[in-house]
Amino acid sequence: MSAWTTRSGWQRAAATAATLLAVGVLAACGSDDDTASADNGSSASAESSSGSSSDDTAAEAGSFDLPDGWDLDSLPVPPGMEAEDSTASDDNPSFKIFDTDADAVIAFYRQALPDAGLQITTDGPVGDLQAIQATGPGLHVSVSGDDAMMSVSFSRASS
Length: 159
Hints:
Blueprint lengths: L6 H21 L18 E3 L7 H5 L1 E4 L8 E4 L6 E4 L6 E5 L3 H14 L3 E5 L6 E7 L2 E7 L3 E8 L3
Antiparallel strand pairs: 1-2, 2-3, 4-5, 5-9, 6-7, 7-8, 8-9
C-alpha cells in the first residue's frame, strides 16, 4: 500500500499544498498582532446550522466556528460532510473533510465564500489538487485537496 492510499499520506500531501498556497498569500500581507483569546473548547466543531437562510445549501450545511477575534464568526461546511482533524489555534485555524468529492466541495465553496463576504482570488487546480482561495476583511481562506481529503485553512490578512 503506497503512502498515497493512507490518510496520513494524503494529510501530508494536502498540508504541503496548503502550505505552498499559503506562502504566496502570506508573502503579500503582513502579520497583525493577535490580541484574541483562545477558545479551543468549542471553536472547532461541525454542527448543524440552526438559523434559516435564503440559500438552502447554506441552511443544510454545518459550520466551523472560528476562534474569537476573527472578522468572520464561522464558515459553512458542505451539507452531509463533517469537519475533522480541526485546529482551533488563534492564528491559523483549519479543518479537513475526508472521503469526499473534491469537485463538489470546490463548487460549494465557490458559492459559500462570496456569500460569507469573501472575494475569490484563486480558483483552479494546483497540480493534482483542486483549490480555491478567497480573501475578506482580515482573513484569507484556502481550500485544497482531492477526493480523499480536502483541507480548509485560515490565515490573517493585513488590515
